[in-house]
Amino acid sequence: MPRPASSTSSVGAASEFSCKDCGSPSVVVPAPLSARGAVSCGGCGRYLATWTQFCRRVNRLLSAPARVPAGLPHRPVPSREALVGDLGAP
Hints:
By secondary structure, the chain is an alpha+beta fold. The protein is built from 2 helices and 3 strands, in the order E-E-E-H-H. It has one domain (1-64).
């Protein structure tokens, strides 16, 4: 059975997706999906968050500016429109 997360690490650090206990980036989502369903680590089964909390965290991380490691050239990430172009048009 999944363990409840501590108050200081319910979903981990903002800069990584891996489990704080086992390091796995894999998650198990609730089936069927529900707002309060438990998302757990796919490696060790640790409780990570509710589905709603997990989605909010992922959205925050994806919305945050990208961090480029020191010494690497910075290239802006293309916008969705630039990548998709007219593919999404009806």
